[in-house]
Amino acid sequence: MTIAILGGTGPQGQGLALRFAMAGIEVALGSRDAARSVEIARDLNAKLAGRPRCARIDGFENDRAVVAAEQFVMLAVPYAGHDATLRAIAPLLAGKTLVDLVVPLTPGDPKSVSMPPEGSATEAAQALLGERTRVVGALHNVSAHTLNHLDQSINCDVLVCGNDVDAAEAVAELVGRIGVAAYYAGPASSARCVEAITPLLIRLNISRKVPFSHAGIRIWAPGAPA
Amino acid sequence: MTIAILGGTGPQGQGLALRFAMAGIEVALGSRDAARSVEIARDLNAKLAGRPRCARIDGFENDRAVVAAEQFVMLAVPYAGHDATLRAIAPLLAGKTLVDLVVPLTPGDPKSVSMPPEGSATEAAQALLGERTRVVGALHNVSAHTLNHLDQSINCDVLVCGNDVDAAEAVAELVGRIGVAAYYAGPASSARCVEAITPLLIRLNISRKVPFSHAGIRIWAPGAPA
């Protein structure tokens, strides 16, 4: 299997590429700049050298990365590029599943969100792409820092949302392969909550009152240890 | 210290009354029906009999409960009664801190929220009460079931939000006394996320795919056990 990660040259995209490659899933790393994604892919493969059973990471321009993916295309661009990136590749996404990781952080204040009129980035993506592409929001809350520190397990459960339950469950299964618990959190409108958890975590990370940074969230069962 | 809990005869209010009384904090349990709150308070005190250092729980009509509280008035009514309850007691709340626990669950579908035009219940409360009352959102995500099972520790961190940081920090300190970690999650607008976490947890609790019910959320530090 090959998945695409667009905006894959940023910290979150790079970390996810490493984690999926470690899980044996080929990654087509997309960027507006093919030379840059090729270079980053080479660096990432070098980081994985010596680890057993890793799949390859290859760099492409965004549209070529979409074509390389059979089913799952992850969008990990900054919010400022969310709509423009989708418009540029929309026809290529028909029949595939867009996994939207983007959080509409407020420009200049990453401790808050400024949601689009549709309610969330995931809903905006679904409205923009129409019915031919299934949009699933996922992986918004996982710290890029943690993803890139391969010796650490990922301290974040993943809340997955989308109007197509089958697509969302398939994404939850995919995401589970990098070693996280993933839960179906409801239709695309749930992304209004799920995306907004990220700035809450950023606020805690910035705060001196919390004794850790790079925090995640966990669904906490009764009786489980603190 | 005495705190008021309005809507205190419901499951969440009862559970919180027990937990605060166990922490040595007197509780004025408020209801529209004074006879009912007196009766429930008697039952709750009976449940605490034999436990050391518990404070008393007393039943009142809502307005009398507000008067009994020096500073903190918790609102734990169903969303349908949120605005009407606040309007009825608004003058009595001047100079006090309203701790709003209410989640605007969609009628007939507790797996989703239907936020008021202000954005969240906390924001609606602040708009309704004006500047004389400091409104802090807190304790939305804690399972009533867990609160009422006194042998269980509370499997939920508490996200506290409000426009007055000092008031929010004071509420976080108060909430911490029942044995939970409480974090400042930003201004009242953060309640759009914090309140919406509750229906996500309700969805997980209903789902057969999650191996537990009465789930909470936890802020998860890197390196902490799963």
UniProtKB/TrEMBL annotation, chains A, B:
Single biological process term from Gene Ontology: copper ion import
Keywords tagged on the record: Oxidoreductase
MF terms in GO: coenzyme F420 binding; cupric reductase (NADH) activity; ferric-chelate reductase (NADPH) activity; NADP binding; oxidoreductase activity, acting on NAD(P)H
SUPFAM superfamilies (alphabetical): NAD(P)-binding Rossmann-fold domains
Name of the featured protein: NADPH-dependent F420 reductase
Species whose genome carries this gene: Paraburkholderia antibiotica
Organism placement in taxonomy: Bacteria, Pseudomonadati, Pseudomonadota, Betaproteobacteria, Burkholderiales
InterPro entries: NAD(P)-bd_dom_sf, NpdG, P5C_Rdtase_cat_N, STEAP_metalloreductase
GO cellular component: plasma membrane
